[in-house]
Amino acid sequence: MPANDACTPRPEHHFTFGLWTVGNVGRDPFGDPVRPAISPTRIVEKLAALGVYGVNLHDNDLVPRDATTAERDRIVSTFKRALADHGMCVPMATTNLFGDPLFRDGAFTSNDARVRRYALQKTMRAIDLGVELGATTYVFWGGREGVETNAAKDAQESVKWFRDAINFLCEYVRAQRYDLRFALEPKPNEPRGDIFLPTIGHMLAFLYTLDFPEMVGLNPEVAHDQMAGLDFTHGVAQALEAGKLFHIDLNAQKPGRFDQDLRFGSEDLKSAFFLVKLLEDSGWAGMRHFDSHAYRTEDEDGVWEFAAGSMRTYLILKEKVARFNADAEIQALLADLRARGAAPGQRVRYSENEARAIRDERFDLDALRAQGYGYERLDQLTMELLMGVR
Ligand code: GCO
Ligand code: MN
Ligand code: MN
Prior knowledge:
alpha/beta, TIM Barrel, eight-stranded parallel sheet, two-stranded antiparallel ribbon, 15 helices, binds D-gluconic acid
């Protein structure tokens, strides 16, 4: 495709990256960093040049853990200047509640009440920082909120502690009159053996038990569902349908492995296609955030290749979605399904009459048993479209 086409990222596409994603230095449990750290101001400059809309951060991606107030203020003002110089913003911020050794047994669900209170202090300060930088979404990923052994923790009590923390922080945001929504990010495991509230479904059920459920939604991540062998698009669809998709973490992942955080679309292209289709067809206006990083084999050039490739793949898939929606043969198959009753809005609602009508309805059960649905043809056409021959 030509250089300046529909697949060239532009700020209006609302692509975002975290400082920790392109800034990932390639450390893993078996090996040291392979790339030097890239300064936040350089990240802002490089991402802006690639057509990125905004950059997200954990408190400590920008301000080191033990910085003094004066150091913090200097770092923040330098960063703000870089954002202004390059026309970038910070749509989302979050707290690092997993790196410090004192969070080894969790933050909001640590068995030590002092750790739970410190986690609140750290989060309130990080919320202040995020809001100062303009963030309107605040993510909670409870990386250490879990166990290796169920002998250690009361899982019911842990849910209560987590709820207390989110309720407390909602009250804090309201008291400060911040314009900020919370997005909870589920993950089944890693770094803990098992993490509480492991899936989109667990999180959705949990958030309706909060004091201010309207302030709280989800930040689902491709890799986290793939690790558990789930269909990510279904989870995202359920969150969307509930009005709870506040943010999304895009990446790629081979099922059943550690969190690989691979370049979006680089593994399961078909499921990436259906995810883009869901987001685009629904007109979802949120940020397309890439929570992923370059292969450990890469130098800094490879990092920018990774970033550009993530966005380009998304836009190519968006193009494919438009083709799918305009493909006469595919649409004819879908029209057949709609005629059978798959059209949106064809729902059943209880009334006495409707109950009576359904009770008395005569079905041609043999015809229903005999009919096929044509999905082999539909899927083959979809695959041919994805493979570039349609
Ligand atoms: C992970 C998580 C994190 C969070 C991030 C923002 O598996 O490491 O996905 O990258 O998304 O901490 O809260
Ligand atoms: Mn992740
Ligand atoms: Mn994530």
